[in-house]
Amino acid sequence: MIVFDRVTKVYPGGNTALKNVSLHIQKGEFVFILGHSGAGKSTFLKLILREEKATSGHVLVDGKDLSRMKERQVPYLRRNMGVVFQDFRLIPSMTAYENVAFAMRVTNIPEKQIRERVPYVFELVGLKEKMHKYPDEMSGGEQQRVALARALVHSPELIIADEPTGNIDPELSLEMMELLNAINSVGITVVVVTHEHELARHFGKRVITIENGTVVDDSSRIMGQDNSFASFQEYDQQEVEV
Ligand code: ADP
């Protein structure tokens, strides 16, 4: 699903954010990208989203080399990925429902489909009864679930959560991880970017640690596997179809 082949990213001005990074995230995996501030995590995400291009090496998503991808193909790449940003990026003047519907409208999806799909994704994230509220009438955890609903609306193959614990308390972050796990259990690849060791280690999933732009640890390598699927049995596996 995601391949980094000897990827180096040097920003204009000379900052090297990633150095010769090679890794492979398989379809259906649940992976933590762990690193301190400045380690290169955001750059990693920006390369996957083609917000930035690699200075050298190759980034492949679904077999497509992003450095060769034409500008007009980039929206299609991004539609296949749902991103939950740390600051949620909700539009404050729109209700939760409208925020999610808006993400569909901009891709010219017919209204009828929007009316069916939006309540469905709110149900998936357990927020259907609050979907007509405005972001400022919701808690941080609820706003995050709205952001997740929006990320799910195009039935993506990949969900990326950027610092999911940044703006919510630990209990809620566990709830979020359970939701992400349920999403992963139906085959959607999940990448969680975090600086929190505890969170990353808690779930027994693959953890890729980045320091100073280099992969210094990859739990799947230690375990001698390409991708680890340690079980999540202590958590409820919700039945979801996304
Ligand atoms: P993280 O997300 O782990 O905090 P980043 O990917 O944002 O790390 O940053 C990695 C390194 O690249 C840092 O040294 C940072 O200062 C540098 N960097 C990030 N973005 C830019 C940019 N747009 N221009 C110049 N340097 C940047």
Automatic annotation (TrEMBL):
Q: Does the keyword Lipoprotein apply?
A: no
Keyword annotations for this protein, in alphabetical order, are: ATP-binding, Cell cycle, Cell division, Cell membrane, Membrane, Nucleotide-binding
Q: A GO CC term?
A: plasma membrane
Asked whether the UniProt record includes Phosphoprotein among its keywords, one would answer no
Q: Could you tell me which PROSITE patterns the record lists for this protein? A: ABC_TRANSPORTER_1 (PS00211), ABC_TRANSPORTER_2 (PS50893)
GO terms of molecular function? ATP binding; ATP hydrolysis activity; transmembrane transporter activity
Supply the InterPro entries for this chain.
Answer: AAA+_ATPase, ABC_transporter-like_ATP-bd, ABC_transporter-like_CS, ABC_transpr_LolD-like, Cell_div_FtsE, P-loop_NTPase
Subunit structure and binding partners: Homodimer. Forms a membrane-associated complex with FtsX.
Family according to the record: Belongs to the ABC transporter superfamily.
Described purpose of this protein according to its UniProt entry: Part of the ABC transporter FtsEX involved in cellular division.
Name the UniProt record assigns to this protein:
Cell division ATP-binding protein FtsE
Q: What is the lineage of its organism?
A: Bacteria, Bacillati, Bacillota, Clostridia, Eubacteriales
Which gene carries the instructions for this protein? ftsE
